[in-house]
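hey m, so remember when u said the tokens were messed up on ur end? i reran from scratch. heres the input so u can diff it against urs
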Amino acid sequence: MKKLLAFALVAALAAPTFAAPEEDVETEDTVLKNGGPTIVESQHKQVGVWPAFLAVGEIPAAVRTPDIVGLRLTIPFSTKHDSVTGFDLGLWGRARNFEGFMCSILRNDAKESFAGLQLGVYNSVGQADLFGVQAGIFNEAVSICGAQVGLVNVVGQAQGLQLGLINRAEELYGVQIGLVNVIRDAEIKFCPIVNVGF
């Protein structure tokens, strides 16, 4: 465990040194005047790629957090990054958009989009679409295309599989396997053991 923690600390401290330099990407807003385009103003957007990031506390809202590509260690909890692609390991992981493997012991939270695997006690894809798998004690999503595996699985719209003790879906095109299975828009709303929505 000490070696793992030492490695994580070295990787996080070395990340700014070996990170790709930030580039200025120009975007142009155009307005049509008299049949021809006229450039109104040019905006600069900073794009940076970080191979590793160690989150040890909350970054103030005024500071723009970098997008992460690679590994993010969230000890004790993560900052609110706009985009994370890769691995997120720790206690409490949060991101607006996430692609990859999110494994946090306490909670995994994606706000707008998620593609990959969430593994933890409580997995949440708040207002987002989930493409992949949630595995944990409590799993919730607004929309899912994939599978939920856990004790309690809750989803708004789903295409795929719910496997758990209690499964609940507003709309489901797929299969629920568990002790309590509820599909609210189906003709048979409750069915123990196996319930199928189509």
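this time it looks ok to me. The chain has one helix and six strands. if urs says something different then somethings off w ur setup not the seq
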